[in-house]
Write a structure and sequence with these properties.
This protein is α/β, with parallel strands linked by helices. The protein has helices at residues 3-15, 18-25, 29-43, 59-86, 107-116, 131-137, 152-155, 174-177, 223-231, 241-250, 281-297; strands at residues 48-49, 56-57, 92-98, 121-127, 143-146, 158-172, 194-197, 217-220, 237-240, 254-255, 264-274.
């Protein structure tokens, strides 16, 4: 059984005649007739009823025809992927992003990229704190989006494109704040649990920002768990502004100001790539579109 024979089966089944199939496939009628008979002999079934004016699939033929369509579609897909790869396009690219970044902002860019390059898989990796930059430095990501401010020694090895500015804001539930009606200093929250997201990289190993000595704390792996705990009144901490906008608006979460600490942190989010890693066509197009987005925002 060959793909050529399956194409003959498809052409005859859909046109109903050897003549029409011959014109469609640019083969002689005897060649198509012989190909169909050979396929029937190999499969041990009769594919067409030849008694009428038009060639019609038998019941067995109808089942074989459906399987043939799937195989031909797979063959077409393989050819498209091979053409895609032979042209230099990547099989996959990885975009790592720091979890405080609002991914919804660039969904149209990802959709455009996937639509233009459907045979390249886009792998999205959500990282926390220094994890995204580390993924870039270790070659585990082609492009990253992160607010991490990098030193001059590292920035010399990277290209940056400013995307937009976001914020991390201290919030707590009304239930927690009722326990502290005159809250002014962080020391008053020592016995409340500060909810802290753990770094997926090594950049802040053994370092905790904005955490006072003696503070009770809980560690979580993602912002959604952190938000759930804060909403329940079990703790407090900073969350991305976009993630809490509706809860702040309806009063489920309250902003609060402590006189002895920074209650709001502004973050500049950058798209980053290394200068030494040459991007392929797909990643290059994604990088270009991210840069254009940043120019529109700033």
């Amino acid at each position: 059984m060959t793909l050529d024979q399956l194409m003959m089966l498809k052409a005859v089944a859909e046109s109903g005649s050897l003549r029409a199939a011959s014109e469609l496939l640019h083969k002689t009628q005897p060649a198509i007739s012989q190909g169909i008979r050979q396929l029937e002999a190999q499969l041990g079934v009769v594919l067409f009823n030849r008694e009428g004016y038009r060639l019609a699939l038998t019941d067995d033929g109808k089942q074989i025809y459906q399987h043939a369509l799937r195989l031909l579609n797979e063959a077409t897909a393989i050819r498209q992927v091979a053409k895609h790869l032979s042209s230099g396009n990547e099989a996959n690219i990885t975009l790592a992003f720091e979890a405080s970044f609002d991914l919804a902002r660039i969904l149209p860019i990802l959709e455009i990229t996937q639509s233009e390059f459907p045979n390249t898989q886009i792998v999205l990796k959500q990282e926390y704190l220094s994890g995204a930059v580390e993924a870039l430095q270790t070659g585990k990501a082609d492009i990253v989006i992160s607010p991490i401010e990098i030193g001059s020694s590292q920035s010399a090895q990277m290209e940056l494109a400013l995307l937009h500015q976001g914020k991390l804001i201290d919030v707590a539930s009304p239930r927690l704040l009722l326990r502290h009606p005159n809250l002014r200093f962080s020391s008053e929250l020592l016995n409340e649990y500060q909810i802290i997201v753990q770094d997926t990289g090594k950049g802040t190993k053994n370092i905790e920002y904005g955490v006072q000595d003696g503070q009770r704390r809980w560690y979580v792996n993602d912002f959604h768990t952190k938000k759930m705990l804060i909403l329940s009144g079990m703790g407090w901490g900073k969350l991305p502004d976009y993630l809490i906008a509706s809860e702040v608006a309806n009063g489920a979460l309250n902003l609060f100001k402590l006189q002895d600490k920074q209650n709001e942190v502004s973050l500049n989010y950058y798209a980053m790539k290394t200068k030494t890693h040459l991007l392929g066509p797909v990643a290059s197009k994604l990088w270009k579109n991210l840069g254009l987005y940043g120019q529109q925002q700033n």
